[in-house]
Amino acid sequence: MHYLEIILIGIIFLYPIIDLINEKYKSSNKNIEYIKIVFSLWVPTTFLVYLFCTNNLSVVSFNYIIKANWQNILSLSFILIAVIYLVILSRTIKINEQLKSEIAQKFQPFLNLMPVTKSQMLIFTLLVSVSAGICEELIFRAYLYNLLDTHIGITGAIFFSSIAFGFWHIYLGWKEVLRTSIMGAIFCGVYIFTGNILIPIILHIFIDVYSGLICYFSMQKLDYAAQES
Q: What digits encode the pLDDT tens for the residues 9-57?
């Protein structure tokens, strides 16, 4: 293993500590925090891609080609259905005040992260969600899962790569560590099922965009959105 790859692994496992430190010095401007998140995601990812391109990585393939097989067609079909559902749900939230209030209540514990104004929604959707989908899937599924799979097998690789993924969200609390660890295992399953990293990336981006848009639409005309604008 190249020494630069050891440094990369160190960065991956030290990232949660950096996140906890950053949480203590976070800005009151949510858009600034979004930019900081994007930057912190792309630093290790750029390093990962550099090592991959210079053949200094133990993992020699990220499986980034989508083949025309039934697994990929089925997966993309489900994502398309989910997108249609998101459009329908977004429209329903706009006209159903009771549904809007119920969803807004569920997002209350995460309002320090989720978008509630138009500018926050745009940055969260176009930068944070896309960056998280690309960077985290490359790091945890394309790289860490494959690296662990060659040493401890598929079960251990899914478990430990998903736990590591969960700890990247420790700044949100232990419940989110558990939830995102489970999501990490699901993303691993999608990666194994489809045989490529692009569909997990698309799915990850969609899930983050879904959460951001639903939060934004549910907060419209509510007191919190008025205070943030």
A: 999 999 998 888 887 888 889 999 999 999 999 999 999 999 999 999 9
Could you give the C-alpha distances from 177 to 103, 162, 165, 182, in angstroms and in order? 22, 10, 8, 9
Distance CA 219, CA 229 (A): 11
Q: How many domains, the chain?
A: 1
- Say which DSSP state 67 is in: -
* Cβ–Cβ < 8 Å for 176, 159: no
Question: Residue 115, SS3?
Answer: coil
Neighbours of 209 (CB within 10 A): 21
Two tokens at 110?
Answer: 């995460």
Residue that has been written with the tokens 């097989």 in this structure: 69
d(CA 140, CA 161): 6
Sequence-distant (≥ 6) Cβ neighbours of residue 195 within 8 angstroms: 63, 67, 69, 71, 72
Pick the closest to residue 200 from 22, 31, 64, 4 (CA basis). 64
- Identity of residue 47: F
Domain range for 125 is: 3-228
Q: Model pTM greater than 0.90? A: yes
Q: How far apart are the first and last CA of the chain?
A: 50
- The angle at the Cα of 31, spanning 25 to 36, to the nearest 5 degrees, equals 50
Amino acid identity for residue 13 in this structure: F
Question: Would you give the DSSP letter of residue 1?
Answer: -
